[in-house]
Design goal:
single chain, alpha/beta, two-stranded antiparallel ribbon, 19 helices, globular
């Protein structure tokens, strides 16, 4: 195996702690006799545990080795794979080297572990060639990723030569992209070094669609129109959704990502303390073949906070203009994003030559950088009852409408007042009572 891995050029810079590189080193140590059988068995079992963990995380079954190799191929971000993502596999000298790597991957697909198993007295590799996951339906994993990996894995198993293998992999890159962006809808970030961040997939993102949000038709239309223009490459605006809590602001953003995921829309959720990393985020995604919404939930600033300066700099662009494939969507309970005190209105107060109101004006001007502002106000009681009735109908709850209204009214009086969230919580309560009974 280590001889096959040594032939990799484009895909050969994998970290040494990956399963493939570790297994290759285990085979090398077996051949040169520099480790005991006991040590090699321990190392094999460690990598097998890692492989089973990958299978659990992504819901893989059948041939786990093939699934793993396929996963490596479609998550490897290198100049060749990213170019294929953007323009496809055009004729070029790099294709020669890529096909050499794909010949090596075909050999890895067909690798015979029997020598290693016989030498160490184990059979774990034979066991994972036709693996059946137990309780798969109860596991939390990204079904979209699982299905794509396994479908491509089967095609690569059947590829008759490196050209067919090449066509399968590059076709996948062009259709779905490469790396985590090609497989997932939404991400959070984790700083890894100065000027760089790691994108962490959100595997359990809510699957809500816009139709699941009852009411707010005007608000949803404004959001859809702006997002559709964005994914179609037309001019679009940053969006601020503001208003009362529990009215569906965050739900609308999640739904819009689900609606337009198939058209290349991705979401990156950023928290306020991470605003200093915004420039690094943009630098890493500006040349990718996706449209990105940088999402900020429950955005607001207290008097002493200065993070708004990072956000303002990004929105305004500074020396470098904001890339066309990036927009900022934010939700807030505050129309102007900041908490204003009576002292903030005092234009006479002077600190180091600056009036307090000048500072406030700078913060308030941030809102004007959002070209689309959408108000999600608290529903009236009539609208609240409409939401409850529609949600009950969708949930299959059979209750006389007058009784449903009466019970919904009792619920909101003791559970935070009228809102879409309160209505959903009431429906969840009814569903829970049905299951108990």
């Amino acid at each position: 195996m280590y001889k096959i891995v040594s032939r990799l050029l484009i895909y050969g810079d994998m970290p040494q702690d990956t399963i493939l590189m570790q297994l290759a080193d285990i085979v090398r140590k077996m051949d040169d006799g520099t480790q005991t059988k006991e040590e090699l068995v321990t190392r094999v079992f460690t990598q097998m545990k890692h492989l089973l963990q990958v299978a659990t995380d992504y819901g893989f079954d059948k041939n786990l080795w093939h699934n793993y190799l396929t996963f490596l191929l479609i998550t490897s971000e290198n100049p060749f794979s990213i170019t294929c993502e953007k323009v496809g596999a055009n004729d070029g000298s790099v294709n020669y080297f890529a096909k050499g790597d794909f010949r090596a991957f075909q050999d890895l697909f067909r690798y015979d572990f029997s020598k290693l198993e016989e030498y160490l007295g184990i059979d774990c590799f034979s066991r994972i060639s036709n693996y059946r996951a137990i309780g798969k339906k109860d596991l939390m994993y990204n079904k979209n990723v699982s299905e794509k990996v396994q479908a491509l894995s089967l095609r690569l198993e059947e590829a008759k030569d490196e050209q067919e293998f090449f066509d399968c992999v590059t076709g996948f890159y062009k259709a779905f992209g490469v790396g985590m962006f090609g497989l997932n809808k939404a991400f959070r970030i984790q700083p890894v070094e100065e000027g760089r961040v790691k994108f962490c997939p959100i595997n359990n993102m809510d699957t809500v669609m816009l139709d699941d949000l009852i009411g707010y038709e005007i608000q949803k239309k404004k959001l859809v129109d702006n997002t559709r223009a964005f994914v179609e490459g037309k001019k679009a605006n940053n969006v601020l959704l503001f208003g009362d809590s529990g009215t569906g602001k965050s739900t609308s953003v999640k739904a819009i990502v689900n609606e337009f995921y198939g058209q290349g829309l991705r979401m990156i959720e950023i928290y306020k303390h991470q605003f200093k990393d915004l420039s690094a985020v943009i630098a890493q995604i500006k040349n990718r073949n996706y449209r990105f919404i940088i999402y900020m939930d429950d955005l607001s600033f207290e008097e002493f906070e200065v993070e708004y300066k990072f956000l303002k700099a990004v929105i305004e662009g500074g020396v470098e203009t904001r890339p066309d494939n990036i927009l900022i969507y934010a939700t807030s309970n505050r129309r102007h994003l900041i908490k204003e005190n009576w002292s903030d209105r005092d234009d006479v107060e002077n600190s180091n030559g600056m009036h307090r109101s000048d500072t406030m004006e700078e913060k308030l001007s941030l809102v004007n950088r959002f070209g689309v502002t959408i108000n999600y106000s608290k529903p009236s009681q009539k609208e609240y009852f409409h939401i409850v009735i529609e949600l009950a109908r969708k949930a299959g709850i059979e209750m006389e409408e007058q009784l449903l209204r009466a019970e919904a009214n009792k619920w909101e009086l003791s559970h935070g007042g009228i809102s879409g969230r309160t209505a959903q919580q009431f429906i969840n309560y009814l569903l829970g009572q049905q299951s108990v009974n």
